[in-house]
Design brief:
By secondary structure, the protein is an alpha/beta fold. The protein contains 5 helices and 3 strands; from the N terminus they run H-H-E-H-E-H-E-H.
């Protein structure tokens, strides 16, 4: 996973990767997570549904979620923000842009 490799090289970050929302929920149940990078195109439950669902839980309401997708920005950026994401990035994205966006929401 390119995103995981990017953050493994960035100092000061711990990265927990998940390929499905079920895997992500297991991580959220065990680890302290400061931010979620969410691909909207996931197998099984889609990213927007996952975002809406976890945002109903008190402990995740303030958790920043950055969505990214190859889906058309004109349609999905607004849907992602409405679902509870703080930002939307187009795929493919520039690595620096992703790191800068993450830093913005972790400060």
């Amino acid at each position: 996973m390119a995103v995981e490799m990017l953050f493994r090289w960035e100092p000061g970050y711990a990265f927990f990767g998940a390929g499905t929302t079920a895997e992500a929920e297991k991580i959220l149940g065990k680890e302290k997570v400061d931010l979620i990078l969410l691909d909207l195109a996931l197998p099984g439950e889609d990213g927007l549904t996952f975002c809406r669902r976890i945002k109903t839980q008190e402990r995740f309401r303030a958790l920043p979620i950055i969505a990214f997708s190859a889906f058309p920005r004109q349609i999905y950026e607004e849907k992602a923000i409405e679902a509870g994401c703080v930002a939307y990035l187009d795929k493919p994205f520039q690595p620096r842009s992703l790191v800068e966006t993450v830093r913005k929401y972790l400060l």
